[in-house]
Amino acid sequence: MSVDALEVPAPVVRDVIALRRDFHAHPELGFEEVRTAGIVAERLRALGYQVRTGVGQTGVLGILRSQRPGKTILLRADMDCLPIDERSGVEFSSTVAGKMHACGHDGHTAMLLGAAQMIMERRDLIHGTIVLCFQPAEEGKGGARAMIEDGALDDPAVDRVYGLHLTSLYPTGQVLVRPGPVMASSDSIEVTIRGRGGHGAAPHQTVDPIVTSAYFIAQLQSVASRNVDPTEPAVVTIGAIHGGTIHNVIPDSVDLLGTVRAFSEAERAAMKPRIERVLSGCCDAAGAGYDYRYIDRYPITVNDEKEAGYVHQLAVRTLGERRLGHLAMTMGAEDFSFMLQRRPGCFFFLGSQSDERTAVPHHNARFAIDERCLATGVQMMTALALDAPQRP
Ligand SMILES: [Zn+2]
Ligand SMILES: [Zn+2]
């Protein structure tokens, strides 16, 4: 199947932009994407897809089975927003206080709906089976895992998975593909340091959990700098510390929350005991006790080498060599990693930046995209549907 010059007609581009603006104005948090999922399901049904709703709570699958032999491929878009008050200044800003599409998932959903139309219009050329996967709750709640547990990869049996994310770090319309590990693991730690409270003027009668926390946080930095192989990136960040009430009272306990990132499963597995060793050492020295919880959240996102090479070549054929960029590693994380743990595939990126306004980081209240990138995403998802099922 030829995917060169797979242009997206102007009415489709306008429709995708209108959809994206509508999703942007009506953002929904993870597992609450009722309105978004409703629009998605209605669109897919109108186009002629077999539709499954309520997959992983609010997820939607659109299935197209062709008469020609071929693989079953899954194309994924995430639908959820973030708990942020929008300050981007766009005219289609969030209409809901405290909720904002600040990661580009509105664009992902609109692009895959645009591709849904392009694919259906070319259904005589399609081989195998296409599964369009509209996923809830990417931001921290593991919607991908919920969809997998509800059979998203089994009915129909999916052979390969592909996902796309916008990025404000790269120029609009540039496609970035990287083989191997592409995003970090993301785990959480929850710590309570238990001392014995008392008067701030008589610390000798107490076990001070504030001072112990300070030692722990300072020592924790040595985990990344002294324990982890210096050629392997890893991060430990304490993002919240809560303890005490007033100037002159030493509290009984202090609570800490943190995030742990790694780029290999071996380093990731080693972080849990390393952090506890530092914690128990600091608490021992002070005579304090502790509770320690290490919560596995998202695995490392690992692209299959062959599949990443394939997506790169497909982008060259679809868009031309000069539209391909070089992707740097980041310590961000993605729950598409759960799908890539189970099926070979590729998670790739699409630049959305053209000026200062669209260069704002993701998860920032002023995040914005250059909508000219959306047509490129439609092209890539359509090209995958036309081409990928025919590969051995
Ligand atoms: Zn995000
Ligand atoms: Zn995201």
Describe this structure in words.
This protein is of the alpha/beta class and 392 residues long. It has two domains: 10-182 and 300-390, 3-Layer(aba) Sandwich (Aminopeptidase), CATH 3.40.630; 185-298, 2-Layer Sandwich (Alpha-Beta Plaits), CATH 3.30.70.360. Helix content is 33%, strand content 26%. It has helices at residues 10-25, 34-47, 105-121, 143-149, 209-227, 265-286, 305-319, 336-342, 374-387, and strands spanning 50-55, 59-65, 72-78, 129-135, 160-171, 175-176, 180-183, 185-194, 198-199, 234-243, 249-250, 253-262, 289-298, 301-303, 324-325, 345-353. The strands form four sheets. An eight-stranded mixed β-sheet has the order 1-2-4-3-5-16-6-15, sandwiched between helices. It has a four-stranded antiparallel β-sheet with strand order 10-12-8-13, covered by helices on one side. Helix 3 (105-121) links the parallel strand 3 and strand 4 (129-135). Helix 1 packs antiparallel against helix 3. It is elongated, with a radius of gyration of 23 Å. One zinc ion binds next to loops. The site of one zinc ion (ZN) has 4 residues, from loops.
Summarize the structure.
Helices cover 33% and strands 26% of the residues. By secondary structure, the protein is an alpha/beta fold.
Beta-strand content estimate: 25-35%
Measured as a percent range, the helix fraction is 25-40%
Instruction: Give me the CATH architecture of the largest domain, please.
Output: 3-Layer(aba) Sandwich
CATH superfamily of the largest domain, by name, is Zn peptidases
Number of helices: 9
Overall shape: it is elongated
